[in-house]
Amino acid sequence: MLEWLIPAASTSAEEIDWLFTLIFYTVGFWFLVAQGIFFGFILKFRRRPGVRSQYIAGESTDEKRWISWPHYVVIACDVVLIAGAIAVWRDVKQIIPTPDETIRVVAQQWAWTFVHPGPDHRLDTPDDVVTVNELHVRNDATYVFELSSRDVVHSFSVPVFRLKQDAVPGRVITGWFRPTRTGTFDIACAEMCGIGHALMPAVLHVESAEAHAAWLGDRTTVAAASSESRS
Amino acid sequence: MSLPATAHDVGLSHEARSFWSRYVFSTDHKVIGLQYMFTGMVMALIGGFMAYVFRMQLAFPDQVVPLYGLVTAREYNALVTNHGSIMIFWVAMPVLIAGLGNFLIPLMIGCDDMVFPRLNRLSYQIFFVSAVILLLSLAAPGGGFGGAWTAYPPLSASAQYNHTPWGAPLWLLAVALEFVAFLLGGINFTVTVMNARAPGMTAMRIPIVVWMIVIASLVFMASVGPLVAGAVMLLLDQVVGTRFYDPKAGGDPLLWQHLFWFFGHPEVYVVLLPATGVVAEIITVFARKKLFAYKTILGTSIATGIISFFVWAHHQFVAGIDPRMAHLFTITTLLISIPLAEMMFAFIATLYGGSIELATPMLWALAFIAEFLIGGVTGIFLGANATDIYFHDTYFVVAHFHYTFFPIAIIATFAAITYWFPKMFGRRLNETLGQWHFWGTIVSFNAIFIPLFLTGAAGQHRRIYSYESFPQLSTPWLNQLAVLATVALIVLLIFQVIFLANFFWSMRRGEPVGANPWNANTLEWSAPSPPPHGNFATMPTVYRGPYEYGVPDRELDYWPQHVPS
User: Fold this and answer.
1) Cβ contacts of residue B21 below 8 Å, gap of 6+?
2) Is B148 in contact with B88 (CB distance < 8 Å)?
């Protein structure tokens, strides 16, 4: 359902959207029932001349079942939703799969730095590609990111991936994603980080393997050239 | 039970005195209650104006806002931060707990004043100072604090990051003083209800709203300690340069988040419980019904208060806590829906077989139930850890908590004011204006926040001054929703003029009423309207529970608590 409002572009997004739909229908149905009964009572028991209210204490078991039965329904629904939430969370946050690529994401006031591993698929080698406010990833590849912050708490948010993770100074937090659709998408900071909080946009490019290799090739040449000129 | 030691025994007389001693330095619980209420109303207007300014910026970015001017990013941040702080700490808390608690508790349990009248006065004075400091912080060099009402360090801890060297510490000082004021108030409420009840007012005959205020006070007192400790450490970080929250020096930013939310989530229930209490009082009177399952409702509110201490980390699912911990907090968070749902079911069941009169207080009370249900069910999306990854810090959250806080701080407050106004001032509010105000407020409220559920679900993050840098988050459709929400807010604010006019006109010119205009049972309606200092002509004795409406074989459909059988 969320896809009507925003595309889903990762495996996690599909799972989270499934959970959203599950909650929406479960909760939505009982919400309508409750509101229906509520407004029904208001209409049915409007004040009429000569009609007195009934005296119901609601203390006997016989009377209390009118609230205890709905209460069991709530418990049953809660159990289903908790099970769904735990299952999806395990897949999305708790179990980190073996990556095809590892990237580094560094937040600061008010910019994102992305370290791509380059053609050798390894970080901290001379062919690493460092970009600011621009992240390039390959479609259908599993990425693990190492997220850190240089100053205050930021939050790495990629709405189309349904991905959000705070970047906390002093920690390196790992997470993962696997893109499922090519395109250009927004990355935002989702945690108040000061005056420039709204000015921390970055662009996510999800590319086919060929396009990604081409981009990486261009950048690696530049990176190698500049490191040569420095040395 | 012997009468308590109160104002009389400490030598404060009842005669009318000068304006200052009667209205400003009074120890009368009713005057202090009204002081809290009026201060809360002024702060609500300020908070509402702030909402108007930043909503205008969101709907019409970078244009001059009428009555304000251009909004800079720095000002925007300060406005959203202080709007949140004001509405929770300087509107919901003073009006619902301090205002109503002070006005109602002695009247409803049948005593002449709070047990500690001077402590009560001190509580208001500290609260007043805290409000002044908060407002001054907005004018401080560098501007007001803009690090969100949650004030996460290291941003909040250092002027190097937040660029508000005065705004941040003053904001924190104001919040800390406000806590002190409510601690004093909470002690007073609890002790008064424990010790100063009228003869016959047994535990199970106490009106639900009094129970709710006491439970809320206890939850507040138990949860605020860790936050006060956290706030002192944060203040030291800001002012003295200690590094409790600085990871470079071995501190931990997450420490603050735990301390803050350990208080912050129970705080939701601290303001919610008195609001549900107000609703319980009103629906029984206007449906002429005994409250359905009094003991169950009491049990659910105690259960809610206890469980509220075990849910805090659901605000931190994506904050970098151990992922396994999130499961635990999802379970507790969804569990807290059970007692609250049961309480709402009991309220709905109370309507069954009633004789419902849709007078203004009843409309507000019923609106609370209908709107709060929306707040409750949308909370499930956020309590479920996996969906919260996406919704965390989006407008979906903003819409959700406004569907809880608006019913609490605004709808229940209007319910309370319209219901107890005759007792406060001895006159009636104008019913036609009241109905106009009700429908105008309710319709525009929904028109503000339903669009925000959609913008949030479409990915818009909160606290963003302008979405222009985000192509997917500033589509024409999303911008139209922002405009709709802003226009609805302006309509809502305009409708409050009707309320203010009605309130102040009726205070002086409204139709005078007797002691019990609603034919209600609880003790406050046995005192004159407005009650004099000392409250009751003869101190009441209680013979039955508070909700004996529609008792069979009685001529009257109500049976006041103080009337002998």
Assistant:
1) none
2) no
Domains of chain B, with CATH numbers?
Answer: 23-526 (1.20.210.10)
Please check whether residues A84 and A116 belong to one and the same domain.
no
Express each pLDDT in B522-545 by its tens digit.
999 999 999 998 999 889 999 999
Same domain, yes or no: A117 and A6: no
How many other CB atoms sit within 10 Å of the CB of residue B155?
A: 27
Among B355, B403, B450, the strongest candidate for a mutation testing the A interface, having the largest count of A CBs within 10 A, is B355
For residue B305, give both structure tokens. Answer: 């208060």
Select from A150, A199, A158, A188 the least CA-distant residue to A175: A158
Write the ipTM. 0.94
Listed by number, the residues of chain B in 465-504 with a beta carbon closer than 8 Å to a beta carbon of chain A are 465-467, 469-473
Residue A195 and residue B163: Cβ atoms within 8 Å?
yes
Q: Please tell me whether residues A42 and A125 are part of one structural domain.
A: no
Share of chain B above pLDDT 70, in %: 97
The minimal CB distance from A57 to the residues B290, B356, B557 is found for B290
A-chain residues within 8 Å CB-CB of B341? 70-71, 74
Q: What is the pLDDT of residue B381?
A: 96
Residue B203 touches chain A, beta carbons under 8 Å:
no
Asked whether the predicted pLDDT for residue B154 surpasses 60, the reply is yes
Closest Cα in chain A to B458: A5
Tens-place pLDDT, residues A10-65:
999 999 999 999 999 999 999 999 999 999 999 999 999 989 999 999 999 999 99
Q: What angle do CA B291, B288, B563 make, to 5 degrees?
A: 85
